[in-house]
């Protein structure tokens, strides 16, 4: 059973952050290449509190990736057109083709989090949502897609520090809106919804990975390590073979020898 209170220590990262981050990004670069050449699809999705550091993790996750073979989807409130479909439709339409990685900054779990707490979904709708989400994720996995679910947690004290820091920096104020304070005021209700979410959707095929986000550097390394391990486990990581025709042309044109 996942209890978010177990993820609030905020210990500093004990390694050499820049060196370890660079090493992880190189590893992720190669993992992406393996996905491209093997035609392996993957979905990495993030949930968590406002100002928890999801964006910073995603920025470092994709820093060395080939932009042609991944897409980051920042998920906001559904549009009028999206509301005309079931709540999973707008995510299904964003799923990437084989060889690509889809990264979701917030996700279909909005049905059982914000829509539940704010009353945008009826109790019947969000209660049914657990079963619909589990079926959706099981379908992704059955189709061969690697699914990684990351939740970035921060304590109320740390979240408040970061919200204040955003307000103090003029060029970061745009990142904080009324929704942040509305959600903050309902933290107990959100915690209840989050713990219900973990209890009902932390499945064997699609487990949750919770990151202690109180220290940003430690959180980034922990998240990237987990993502790299999970992605690499589901794809053949043998280096790609050189096309024999390319090798022949390279020998003639460049005097290249292997």
TrEMBL record:
Q: Where is the Polyphosphate kinase-2-related domain?
A: 14-233
Task: Tell me which PANTHER family the record gives.
Answer: POLYPHOSPHATE:AMP PHOSPHOTRANSFERASE, POLYPHOSPHATE:AMP PHOSPHOTRANSFERASE-RELATED
State the organism of origin.
Sphingomonas oligophenolica
Quote the Pfam families the UniProt record gives: PPK2
- Family, per the entry? Belongs to the polyphosphate kinase 2 (PPK2) family. Class I subfamily.
Keywords in alphabetical order, please. Kinase, Transferase
Would I find 4Fe-4S among this entry's keywords? no
The GO terms describing molecular function are:
polyphosphate kinase activity
* InterPro entries for the chain: P-loop_NTPase, Polyphosphate_phosphotransfera, PPK2-related
Q: What is this protein called?
A: Polyphosphate kinase
């Amino acid at each position: 059973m996942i209890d978010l209170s177990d993820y609030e220590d905020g210990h500093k990262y004990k390694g050499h952050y820049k060196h370890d981050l660079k090493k992880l990004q190189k590893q992720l670069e190669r993992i992406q290449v393996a996905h491209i050449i093997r035609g392996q699809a993957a979905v990495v999705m993030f949930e968590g509190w406002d100002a928890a550091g999801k964006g910073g993790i995603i920025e470092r996750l994709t820093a060395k990736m080939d932009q042609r073979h991944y897409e980051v989807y920042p998920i906001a409130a559904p549009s009028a057109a999206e509301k005309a479909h079931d709540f999973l439709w707008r995510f299904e339409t964003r799923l990437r083709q084989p060889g690509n990685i889809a990264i979701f900054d917030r996700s279909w779990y909005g049905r059982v989090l914000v829509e539940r707490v704010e009353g945008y979904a009826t109790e019947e709708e969000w209660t049914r949502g657990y079963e619909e989400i589990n079926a959706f994720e099981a379908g992704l996995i059955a189709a061969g897609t690697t699914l990684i679910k990351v939740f970035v947690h921060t304590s109320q004290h740390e979240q408040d520090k970061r919200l204040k820091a955003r307000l103090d920096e003029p060029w970061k104020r745009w990142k904080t809106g009324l929704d942040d304070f509305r959600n903050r005021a309902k933290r107990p209700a959100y915690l209840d919804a989050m713990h219900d979410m973990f209890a009902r959707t932390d499945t064997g095929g699609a487990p949750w990975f919770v990151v202690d986000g109180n220290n940003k550097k430690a959180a980034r390394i922990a998240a990237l390590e987990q993502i790299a391990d999970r992605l690499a486990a589901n794809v053949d990581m043998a280096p790609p073979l050189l096309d024999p025709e390319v090798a022949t042309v390279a020998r003639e044109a460049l005097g290249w020898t292997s």
